[in-house]
Amino acid sequence: MAHAVTAPPGTGGGERAAALAVRGLAKTYPGGRRALAGVDFEVAAGEVFALLGPNGAGKSTTMRILTTLSRPDAGTATIGGVDVVREPQKARRLIGYVAQRSGVDASGTGRENLTLQGRLHGLSGRTLAARVDALLETVGLTEIADRGTREYSGGTRRKLDIAMGLVHEPRVLFLDEPTTGLDPEVRAEIWEHITGLAGAGALTILLTTHYLEEADRLAGRVAILDRGTIVAQGTPAELKGDLRGDAIHVEVLDPAAAEPARRVLAGLARVREVTVDGVTVRALVEDAAGAVPLVLAALTERGVTASSVAVARPSLDDVYLHYAGRSAKEERA
Amino acid sequence: MSTIASQSWFMTARLLRGTVREPLFLIIGLVQPAIWLLIFGQLFYRVTDLQGFGDGRPYLDYLTPGVVVMMALTRGAWSGGNVLEELDHGVLDRFLVSPVSRAALIAGHLCQQAITIMAQAVLVLGLALAMGARFAGGPVGALVLLLAAILMVLAVGSLSMSFALVIRRSQSLTAVIQFVLLPLVFLSSAFMDQSLAAGWIRTIARFNPIDWAVLAGRSALAEHPDWQLIGTRLLWLAVLAALCALVAVRSFRSYQRSL
Ligand SMILES: Nc1ncnc2c1ncn2[C@@H]1O[C@H](COP(=O)(O)OP(=O)(O)O)[C@@H](O)[C@H]1O
Ligand SMILES: [Mg+2]
Hints:
The complex is a heterodimer of chains A (333) and B (259).
Chain A: E1 18-28, E2 34-44, E3 48-52, H1 59-66, E4 74-79, E5 82-83, H2 88-94, E6 95-98, H3 110-120, H4 125-138, H5 154-166, E7 172-176, H6 184-199, E8 204-209, H7 212-218, E9 221-226, E10 229-234, H8 236-242, E11 246-252, H9 258-266, E12 271-277, E13 280-285, H10 288-301, E14 306-312, H11 316-324, H12 328-332
Parallel strand pairs in A: 3-8, 3-9, 6-7, 7-8
Antiparallel strand pairs in A: 1-2, 1-4, 4-5, 9-10, 11-13, 11-14, 12-13
Helix pairs in contact in A: 3-4, 3-5
Chain B: H1 2-21, H2 24-43, H3 59-88, H4 91-96, H5 102-130, H6 138-167, H7 170-186, H8 199-206, H9 209-221, H10 227-257
Helix pairs in contact in B: 1-5, 2-3, 2-5, 3-5, 3-6, 3-7, 3-9, 5-6, 6-9, 6-10, 9-10
Residues 29, 31, 33, 35, 53, 55-61 of chain A line the site of adenosine-5'-diphosphate (ADP).
């Protein structure tokens, strides 16, 4: 194959080269909307990296720049040493892209969509046919491969999208919100596929999501993107560890009681970052075990009835809250 | 080069497949000219009695090239809609992340339009024959008309795609088409002999590519074609189509830069 994924220039040497290096990436859309304000991160070969952030944070913009669809105003991005702005054609051979909205052509069948994508990458003949068959099998579409994609469900179309991103055996796969809007079962299935791809070791994956659970499950490292800047990055464990202490979750019965409960917690010493999310009030405390009786006593004193008080290690949600200043669920609402 | 050619063909084949699977647009594109032939043919068949109209052929013979060219015009004009759909559905992005030649993406659309307009033109010519039209120019004349229609669809299709890529709003496209198309047709000899039109219309018609295509096709189908007229008009149309295709490629670049 002419476009077989061979080592691009600049990746020689023994050490593990960054599959993806992003420096100072900035982008303002025509019309003055600033989407990225200097984003830096690096992804090592074989790593799964998640960009986590609310709607409008700039996740898709980052993806579109890295996949050569959009141009940055400033900064550089290289894929295996290939600059995406200066050598876009070269970069395109190294990457697979699953866009936020599906790129499936409704007038074709699944197999036709997949085959065309392979052809555009210069594959042909038996190599292509074999790869198409194998990919259809992998994502479980063999049976409906020759049906029109108009009949496909959202989840099926997503699997086809992923197969299309993989048909030319890219080095780096970009997945922009791969499971948004899908049923939990389908989401779990797609997670399994992604885990499988990552497990093979050769593929580097950059995915964006606003599901904290997704980032936690799939990614080795996570960056939290908020309003065009990365506010934190590290492994999920590191990010959680950055938050001193434990998380305490107080649930009240009546949503109207949530605000009084928040005020009670905020008034206590050594309780930080108190937020309300529906009937749940969250906070971080130094010593959760010691804090629970105090919290209960204070609530009772003010006449607020809690249905439960739970203590947990901080979740990625707490991390998110800490850095982005708002809850991810709040964002989605 | 051969890569661009084969890539263009993959894109063409994809679009043709869509056309064949959903022939509604093709059918609508054929019903319209059939209606024009029927209504205009019946409504105006006596205009040939006017002194100075045409070359003595029946009105249906006169009208047919006009209807074919108008069909090409309409087909080309709406082609921007297909590009908008690709754009809206993320299909274009999926092509753009591959190393496919950008020219092939445009060429695919143009080839598909050329092929479908050929099929449609052959059907309309057949229908006209069935209705009693006679074309002394024979198959060669028909080929000239086909060529004129293809050049027309390439020129107008390129402009329509450019418009779609730059403006990116289907309502605007519709508005422009409705505002521009019909007046331009009537400012040509598609339905009416220009020697019977007002002076200013005649002046405009001389620069109207629709008129070039109609004149070339009509003359080629006559008993004694005026090859000089045919040659010059086809040449102008070819130059125009090439210029418009360049505009389309430029618009494509500007679309990509705007993202
Ligand atoms: N094509 C565009 N033109 C203008 N503004 C845009 C465009 N695409 C995105 N934006 C804006 O840029 C910001 C970042 O968007 P995006 O990268 O899509 O965020 P995310 O994917 O994290 O939701 C948003 O404020 C969005 O409205
Ligand atoms: Mg997005």
